[in-house]
Amino acid sequence: MPYLSVIVPVYNESATVRQILDKINQLPMDKEIIAVDDGSTDNTHKVLNEIKYPELQVIHHANNRGKGQAVLTGLSHAQGEFVIIQDADLEYDPADYFKLIQQIKQTNADIVLGARFTQGHSGLHVHRLGNRFLTGLLNFLFGSNLNDYATCYKIARKEVFSSLSLKATGFDFDVEMICKALKKKLKISEVAVQYFPRTYKEGKKIRWHDGLWAIFYLIKYRITG
Fold it and tell me: Could you tell me the pTM of the whole model?
């Protein structure tokens, strides 16, 4: 059984997916990499099929089913003691895995989040403000004190992921996971990670309406779970 399962949901990331998988593959740790191509319409399918690492498993969705569903597919194949989610762009640096693993061991947390905004960053100011608002709303609704609930980097033991009975298939996966964890009184810790935000021209996919949906789901999970 590998120590760490790295789930990489991929949608139209042919320009960066090889680079991020190379970075993960080069990390000196016991791991498996599960790349889930979520019905990409660019060259991603071909690029993934060309990469041959012993630790890499590639799964293809026949059509686009959403980031959350790509993560759920990855979870269904994960064999590691711990699981982490890694976007297929270059906004996050896999070198931070060691810091995240150290944090989960030192704090005995159920989930560790890689917080992007504790040390500041350059890039999309509107996204940073939107994240601050949404995280503030989450903290208000659940009585929590998180800095960055919507970060890609979430690490936990596989059984923690399984215990949450996650079902969200879109970007609301982040909301569902954290809301359910808070309702279950799981211990969530955060540690600062590097963050290199890309622009819309470079392929960023989150849009303003995703923020509106996040508000809806935050309230939904507060009320219904």
Answer: 0.91
